[in-house]
Structures are given as structure tokens and as C-alpha cells.
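Query form — protein Probable membrane transporter protein

QUESTION: What is the three-dimensional structure of this chain?
INPUT:
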Amino acid sequence: MFILLLLAGFFTALIGTIAGSGGLIGLPVMLLAGLPIHSAIATSKFSNTISSFSSFAYLLRKREIRWKEAFSILPFAFGGGIAGGLTAGLLSQSTLEALAIIFLSTAFSLNFIRKSSPSQTGDTENLKGIGPFLTAIGFYDGMFGPGQATMLMHTFIYKGVSFIKSIAFTRFQTFISCSAAFTAYLYNGHFIWQAGLAFCLGSLMGAQIAVKIAGKVPLQLAKTVLNVMTLILIVKLVHSLLF
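ANSWER: The C-alpha cells for Probable membrane transporter protein are given below.
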């Protein structure tokens, strides 16, 4: 099981950092390995906390983002994450999946109404009014999680943020919301340390590789991968909800 969770963590972080929806890999594998649903989500929160901060720190050192910019979204990410983590135990899995479909469909639709296109190296544009969206995504991340990075990427790109900086913002929000949510899961006794450490180690390796190659990924290819992952996740959730 250690090797299985290690590989799952690696590919979850590798894909999730660049295009989001890495949870498509991680969560099903953990459930297949026999982890209870709440323990699987808790494991995902723990590994995302560690791996997302490691990739954010790398981009921070490369000066792709500044602390001041990152801190501007901190209250939305933390508030949403802790509220979602505390709410998770009150909702059924089908309800969470229905909410995920709504969030992802809304994020995907932004591709067709966007007024500006991001550049590979552009500075952060005006993020005024983005707070409620970040809080809602953080809330969903705290409750369930798969697809939250995709939603964040779509949101930041819609606001005109460059692809590489969108990754930096997404990694920082993921770190904050997941750490807040993990606190709630840990308090409720859902976390299994052995599984969490194996998945986390794989995630760390995957995240570091992802941020090192992200800047070399052509923008159009990155957008295509992002859209494909979004559609796959929506189809998977609809199928799960109906069947």
C-alpha cells in the first residue's frame, strides 16, 4: 500500500500543480486502497498542505510572486477552508459531488466569456471582487476537494493573471485552505498517519517537478490540458451522481 499511495501522491501533485484536478487520481486510489472516505479526504488535505507550500515556496524564490500578493487572498482561503472542513461531516457524498459539478461548470464557462487573455510572464492584474469566489472554492476544498485547483486556475486566469502566477496563487490558496481543513479533520479523528505520510512524500516529489517545468509549458497547451481535466472531472462526477 505504501508504494501505491506514494505513486498516487506523485501523479496527483504533478498533474494538479500544472492543470488542477489531480484529485481525479488521488482520491479514487485511496478509496481503492481501503481508506474510509473521510480519512481519504483528510490524507489529501495533509499532503496538499505540504506539497502546495513547497511548490509555492519555489515560485516565491524565483520571484514569480510576492508575499504581499499572496497575503491578499489569505483570509478568503483560510475562512473558506476551515468552514468547509467543519461542514464536511454534515453533508452526504452525493451532495458534495453535486456542488462540485456546479462549481466546475461555472469555472469552465469562464473560458467563453473571458475578456482578456493571460500571458506567460505578465504581472498580476486587478483582483478586486475575487474574494467571494476564492472563499467559495476554499469552502468546497475544505469539504471535498477534487477540482478545486482547476477552479482556482480558471478564476485567476479569467482575471488576467499569467499562467505561472496563477499556479503560484493556486498553490498558496491550496496551502491555506487545506491546512485549515486538515485541522478540522484531525480534530475529528479522521486522519491515518501511515497513509498520509506515504501520499505526502509522493506529492512533494510531484509538486517540485511540476513547478520546475510549468514555465516551459506552452500557454495554449496548458489551457488545453486545464480544459480537458475540467471536462473529465465534470463527466466523472455526473456519472458518479447518477449511477
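ADDITIONAL NOTE: The chain has one domain: 2-242.
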